[in-house]
Amino acid sequence: MTTQPEPTSPALPPSLIAYLAQRDAQRADAVRTVLASLTDRERALIKDAAVMGYVRGTMHPKGERVPKDGEILAEAIDACIAFPDLYPAINAVSQQGIVPSATPEQARRVLTPDEYSAACHAVEAAAGEPGADPGTVLLAVLDRLGVQPPSTA
């Protein structure tokens, strides 16, 4: 009986190892940049969804069809609701004043009393400025609420 020699993996060239390490560092920086740009709520929602997606994904039977995105999303949200202590960001939606709008993709956030007051004061202040136009008033309100208007190209 003859035995096969153990397969050996060829050593990677140092330049390729350095390149791969550099790409890993760039991806890690990109992840940190994205996470830093998120609000606390967005970060919490992504965490809840990612963890639930991983959990539900590991439970998916091998060989079975993978559902469409909408089905996966509904299943993950349903599972998050079943465990409110584990997925607080998903379960806090009803407590944060978010109400359904015409389409589910465009949920509307209700201003807090402090935000509403700040917006009113911004309108009063901006409307009294000489030459104030609706755009000036809107920018003052958005600024007071900490909302970034879209950039005009």
Write the layout of secondary structure elements.
Elements: H1 14-37, H2 40-59, H3 69-82, H4 88-91, E1 98-99, E2 108-109, H5 113-127, H6 134-145
Antiparallel strand pairs: 1-2
**Unreliable residue stretches:** none
What would you call the shape? elongated
Count the E strands. Answer: 2
The radius of gyration is: 25 Å
Helix proportion range: 55-70%
Strand-residue fraction? under 5%
Supply the number of helical segments: 6
Q: pLDDT average, as an integer?
A: 77
> Could you give the order of the helices and strands?
HHHHEEHH
Structural class: mainly alpha
Strand arrangement within the widest β-sheet reads: 1-2
Euclidean distance between termini CA atoms: 74 Å
Note the main sheet.
2 strands, antiparallel
Q: Key terms for this structure?
A:
153 residues; two-stranded antiparallel ribbon; elongated
What report would you give on this structure?
The chain has 6 helices and 2 strands. The chain has helices spanning 14-37, 40-59, 69-82, 88-91, 113-127, 134-145, and strands spanning 98-99, 108-109. The protein has a two-stranded antiparallel sheet with strand order 1-2. The longest helix is centred in the first third of the chain and has 24 residues, at 14-37. The relative contact order is 0.06. The mean pLDDT is 77.
